[in-house]
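Minutes, structural biology subgroup

Action item carried over from last meeting: produce the structure token record for FAD-binding oxidoreductase (Bradyrhizobium niftali). EB confirmed the sequence was re-checked against the source entry. Recorded below for completeness.
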Amino acid sequence: MSHMQIVHDQRSSISFEPVFDVVVVGGGIVGCAIAYHLALRRARVIVLEQANIAAQQSSRAWGFIRQQGRHSAEMPLAAKACRMWETLEDELDADLEYVRSGILLAAETPEDEQRLNTALKAALSAGIRSDLIDSREISKLFPGERQEWVCGLFTPGDGHAEPVKASLAFAAAAKRLGVVFKENSRVIRLRRSASGNVSVVTADGVVRANQVVVAAGVGSAELVRGVGISIPVQPVRASVAQTNPSNKRLSVPVWSPRVAFRPKRDGSFYVSNGYRGIDAEHDIGLHSFGHFGKFIPTFIANRGVIQIRFGREALHTLRHQLRSRRLSIPNEEPEINQKLVGRNLEEFYRVFPELRTLGTRRTWAGRIDATPDLIPIMSRCGFENLMLVAGFNGHGFALAPAVGEVISSLILEGIASLDLDAFRLSRFSEGPLDRQSGAM
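Output recorded by EB:
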């Protein structure tokens, strides 16, 4: 196996030059899971993170771990990930607050029921158990609660966990295996070398490697653009709330037409949008126009769910891009849509009116790296030593254990343990995309 060195600038404060086999750009849960699985295979790995581990997208996730409602291409990956989550606490020697609770996808109208039936057929075709249950069976999951759901799709193999704990646990386990993490390490750009490979330019020096993995979430597009690769990934912004703790102890997360919620161990709830409400907002910037045509069908199919905004967040992004002369997204905290948060909380209290006085512990917003067909890119792209793992559409948390295992096998053994053809970058230039209306 070839090795990698960090070649330091004379001004660098770092005095050692460790040798690695793989550099992973991005310290979110996907990057940490890839690093962990590479280290399990005895690779020497360094992870470069511009902020702190799990400080960006991975800390903003809902915590759902689901197979239901997925694009058919993601089903095998989701099924593998769900199986891995069941033993992950023991494997990583950490409390992840994991619960194999099942997840309920609820319906109110005939149109919602059709969505559930589509998801049920997809699950059964993939060999995943999902059960269509009526309102009486839903009431058994939430006894004594007011709800207007006529039926639901319950997938017992699904569950939930705490995103920050899981991300940090992957990082800690990777460190125990010898992975080096450099936090607050700004990657300035990728650089084409004379040999035709890609190296990583950081504020501390140049990282040259046999293998470079870009798993930098919304920052991935700007990084690979520097070596002539244009990818259709757009950032969208989502807002979430957490209630104060209550005495109510539930285990099953719900995604309904008007609200989604996940119960936590301490009795608090994460609360966000339903699948018929506003899911995310795209803030217009210079980055919006490179692949805008590919996203138009996605925006049309999800009108009312994804909204295009030109407000304060968009203006801030535009000023940043004009000053920096780059299409990157600012690192500052994204703007929280408090109006949307309030509406989601109101819908939550319609389900649990006795919790109306509970109050809100915190609210936050997060950026999601979206693709036109709503499935990720996991592909070599343009250079033999460059692997792109991005565009997870908010699904990276649930899929991370499987992604880490599959990508590490592809990098070190040349063969992925699951077929990744559907996630190739070239699909965006090969003809019509496989857009599946029932996928969420």
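Discussion: The radius of gyration is 21 Å.
Next step: EB to file the record with the rest of the batch.
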